[in-house]
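Hey everyone, long-time lurker, first post.

I ran two proteins through the pipeline my lab uses and got sequence/structure pairs for each. Pasting them in order. The first:
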Amino acid sequence: MLGNTADKRVAAVTLNGLGDPIDRVDLDAEALPEFVAAQESAAHPRWVWSDAPSWYSPLLAAGVTVDRCHDLRLCHAILRHTELVTDRTALVEAARWDAAPGAVEPKAPDSSALFEIEDDTERIAAEVPHDIDEARREFERQRTAIAASSDPGRLQLLLAAESAGALAGVEMGAAGVPWDEEEHGRILTETLGRRPSPGQKPVKMVELADAVRDALGDPDASLDSPPKLLRSLRRAGISVDSTSRWELEDQQHPAIEPLLKYKRLARLYSANGWAWLDEWVRDGRYHPVYVPGGVVTGRWASSGGGALQLPRALRPALRADPGWMLVSADVAQLEPRVLAAMAGDTAMAAAGRGTDLYSGIVESGVVATRQDAKLAVLGALYGSTTGDSGRLVPQLRRIFPSAMAVVDRAAATGEQGGVVSTWLGRSSQPPGDEWRGVQARASQPTASSAEERRARSSARSQGRFTRNFVVQGTAAEWALAWIADLRLRLARMEPARDARPARASGHAFEHRPHLVFFLHDEVIVHAPAEQAEDAAEAVRASAVAAGRLLFGDAPVDFPLDVQIAERAVKE
């Protein structure tokens, strides 16, 4: 057990499998990286800590990496909601662990604790906030919940994957994405014009704004205020309910084309313009802040820098260091492949085996074109009932009944206010009191037709959410298993001591391939040129391993588009 004292001293106590202390060692807090490195070298323990950003960041800064962890906050969030745990009372009452995952910015350990437990199989070390006793209590709550769950094996796998993702997120933030600042600036200048003075807009945005105002006949139209812009559009005879791109694209008016171009440039300027470059890129690295589990389905979010929303126009700025390469890989049609595996739908699996899934659906005779196949699949995943998607979904239901049954059951559960779970056991949260109130009012004999329509609409909306939850959440689990396996494969590769070191990546990664970017179904590895092919093979092998880990011998493959290049630009 390790606990920080007021004078920055750390107490290290070893516990047996029952939680009884065996011995104790006191050391300076500054000695923690050396202590952890020694434990990693000797036993490769599973470190159990409050949250990875708080504890792993200072270890990485000292050049120390760890193989495995159990992130108490992330695991608490899963366990207190999963329907696999029937009695969650103790977890719900432990409210101090309810902080949102990733909410704490990386900082040096302060008044926290770390403990390690020895049993017959592994040594576990754990860091938690407050006192060491509370740390042990929370860890015991979680172990008890897992053991009493309806499927301990799946939950343990989910928690291990989630925690591995936490390690990967901190590592990628620390190493940073190799970034060509000069190329980024060139793209901005080419797209927007020269960098404007403070308080001004780029010249190309100004020109487009003038063109929009001229076409609207409104010299005072405000393009940056949706309510004001909406009024200007309506005054010009453009009948729209919002200023969204999707609605504007359906309109025929001279102002629409320059307005859409203006909106695209405004997005680039505000989200990834020169101010972004100044704030987020240093020493040739973009350092994003990932939030594993930040979305209810288990997908990642980001709390700074927009790592999950980088525009494709900026991809040429992702550039490897001299003597290094970027290994980029993404999996084709991840979510429908996951659906086929979950459902055991052999027909759908066969449609995508060794080929583009949408093209395979066309060849199966379900639809006429690849675009129709894509619309049909997306309609199935997101519950479309109108337009082309709604028209094509019934054909999928006829040809792929097992796959469609999975999402249809999930939708029906959601419409009734029920909870659904992913393949490994992450559960959706039930709808709130307002939703239940709407349904209750509509069920009364005196309910008006408006109340009944509102209830049906909200029920369908909840059904669309749960329909997608089971697939998107399971796809997120596959992706977690992918990067968890990949980071360990990369860590076990011999350091490339003869290659020029990537010093900006930090001491922990300057000599070996390492993950630098992750986006739902895509990874990028920064590797010494002579190890790039080996890194690419590791990426492929990890994808195969992830599929087997989750779905066993299910006849579903997850083909990757893998490229090795100096810049992360698709050919």
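...and the second, right after it:
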Amino acid sequence: MYINRFFGICMAFGLVACGGHNKNWTDQYGKYDPNTATEPNAALYGTYTAEKNSNKTHKIAAILPLSGKNASVGKIIRTSIETAALQSAPNNLNIKFYDSTSDESMQTAIMDKPEIIIGPVFAGNVRLLHEIKLPDTPVLSFTSDATAIGDGVMTMALMPTNSIEAIVKEMQTDKIDNFIVLAPDTESGRLMAGAAKKLAADKNMVLSGIFYYKENNSESIKNVTFNATINEARTAANTRALEILSDILTKEDLSVAEKLSLTDQLDKLSKSDTLGKLPFNAILFLGNASDTKSLASFLRYYGINMHDAKFYGTAMWDGTDIANDITMSGAKYAALPEISTWFTEQYQLISGDTPNHLSAFGYDATNMAIGMLYSKKNNAEYLLNPSGYLTSAGLVRLRPNGDSERGLRIMELNGTGTPHVVRSAAKNFIKPMYTIDSRHITPALSMPLQTNGINPMDYIRIPDRFKALYKSKTFGTNMKSGVIQPPIQENIVILPEDDSDTIMSPDFQPVSTEKINKTYIDSVEISE
């Protein structure tokens, strides 16, 4: 088995002519029909017509950022690939590394005709590879951009929609029926908000508002929280309530009991700047942990905490210092499972470093590539196994459209640095987990918050004989905070394979990648 460090320098003339898209990448392998297959080994997985020659040298190309500003990312994945190869690769396997920062190197990788490609990491490189690779060469990339994959180009990365769908399901379990979204004002932020909007509609939940902020911009974050908390109306309502109570106390003839009641109310209202309930009971944060902490801080400044609205987030919080923030205690988010100890030990032994989830993705991609090369199944049969695989980063399966589906757990922050596991990650795909397709999500426009307004008279108690004299208008009626934009037609498609690929047999369990028959080797040739 050879692991080569290879940086291509020659241009392949006419290379693009060898590539192109195969829109029906899986058609040549047949289709799995759950209506005619009730056992895991039936239909697609029951018959193999082609045996692979175990005597020939199998070739894997790993295309990673090995130089430039992202070289550290490439190093992490390279180490994980080498870890998997040293642990499980047979002697007749040849793995070459190519630098994705060089188009020439990527083209050379294709000219070397690998049987499967691991990488690239970034969407731009994946799109280029998509154009120049041979149609029947599978790719296990690491991009989370749904528009860059498909036609045999798959991803090992966590798709953002998986994380959003998992946490919205948890919100539904928590009886949340009305929420708002706070998202970064980016292309991905609008797509994630679009996914949340679609899920809310599917689950009969009310999405009351969508607010966008500029990332790492405190002024933008402040303005967004001011609008989202209807602070202007709540402040005006509180001021008016104080005026009414003060006027009655100073101008009217009151009994001792009435004076005590009004004075007590006045004292309590004086301790707050705002009055009135929010028109939602949860907030879904779709940005990173740093911006979330800033948003939460301004929310508290404007009188909103988790007693008023519960906080929820995505996997972007995982592994960040938000876990140490005591003010975020009680907030929940979706997260990948813990990295397995058996991979962690191997990775540390080789590199001396602690692996992260990107490391695990590289390790799992390598094991899946090796499994495909030495399996009796055809490539798509192996990689698109609807039962998925239990990997070092938990349950995963690859979809014909290139997406990955990953089992996620639900965590709850407690301010200790070690979040509490509320719900463990799924161990199989017997029950469908995800319903929406990332590439058919319409980016959501900002959605102004609609409210019936706040009338101070609903929050104070005055003697009946004064109700005709002391009245107030309703503040913030149909108030629209944010930019008003015309509605657009949603065009969201639910993939039919999410249901059709589901096997309801209790024996239908994912393959455990660590159970692959591993051949330990005595020596490894490393050539520069």
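Reply from user beta_strand_b:
Welcome! Quick read of the second one: Residues 2-53, 479-507, 515-528 have pLDDT under 50 and may be disordered. The longest helix spans residues 231-251.
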